[in-house]
Amino acid sequence: MSLSGLFNVGHDVGGFSGDKPDAELFVRWVQNGVMHPRFTIHSWNDDHTVKRAVDVSGRHPRYSRCY
Question: pLDDT tens digits, the chain, 67 residues: what are they?
Fold first, then answer.
């Protein structure tokens, strides 16, 4: 329990090391993880995911012109 009285329970969705989970397991893991107070997709990505927010910073000006 944290100092504010809230529980800090969650999962490192996708796993912390080892092989990547298959797509079905990953989706189920995310569905479960979002129901917990702490949710992170940690140390897992493939070609269809963004690794860091910095990776998309160069795309922002192009998208912001649309709005």
Answer: 667 777 777 777 877 777 777 888 888 888 888 888 777 776 555 555 555 555 555 666 666 555 4
Q: Single out the residue of 21, 16, 12, 20 nearest to residue 41, CA to CA.
A: 12
3 state SS of 57: helix
Q: How far apart are CA 9 and CA 33, in angstroms?
A: 10
Note whether 37 and 7 are within 8 A (CB). yes
Residues for the chain: how many in total? 67
